[in-house]
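During the no-cost extension, the postdoctoral fellow (Dr. R.K.) reprocessed legacy sequence entries with the updated structure-token encoder. One reprocessed record is reproduced below for audit purposes.
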Amino acid sequence: MNSDDRTGQVVVHLDGVRKEYGGTTALDGVSLEIRAGEAVAVMGPSGCGKSTLLNMIAGLDRPTAGTVVVDGHDLGRLDETGLALFRRRHIGMVFQFFNLIDDLPALDNVTLSAQLLGIPARQARRRALELLDELGIADRKDAYPAVLSGGERQRVAVARALMNRPALLLADEPTGALDSRSGEQVMDLLIDLNQIGQTLLLVTHDPHLATRCAGRLVELADGRVDRESTLERTE
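Re-encoded structure tokens follow.
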């Protein structure tokens, strides 16, 4: 799925990132590097800055101070159009509640991001079918989200996120809306993706997800990196 040959190169570089909303400081001088091929989990209590950090790296929000460089792009130098193109070309995002389009079947949900980049429909459809097959849900390509299980919907969402071969896959509580069995299947999927080279950043409240899927843990507290540690993956 991902033929990234840049293992070891820095994909994410944050230097002194601060984010203020009114009088509230969401991030307070965060510096962080993520290298190609890593799987990094970010944890911490509610309100510690996890979602803000994810939004900074995705180019969905701008820092009050500091720099954010992702896949060689200094996001502070991009205008809104440039940020939108950056996200489509370099970032894959997987959300807790899937964010699929209800009135499109699975295949069309997956191809949409490629079509937004102007990739020909036939080429996009071929790539989408390959992804759905590799994720084990090719037989559900014509099904609408409403009739898919939670695990199937998240697999469609992962296929959509991988459509444009992103340098970085961001997952925000990817198992939070799933039952335990579907959650385990999605964890297995994330592990498999990382093992073939996909760089992952997971934001989660679930220590089981972190220890199963990530090789490094970044713990936030009060908008700062409180601790970083190496993880031994568990089964």
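The chain has a mean pLDDT of 90. Residues 10-230 form a domain with the Rossmann fold fold (CATH 3.40.50.300). The remaining legacy entries will be reprocessed before the final report is submitted.
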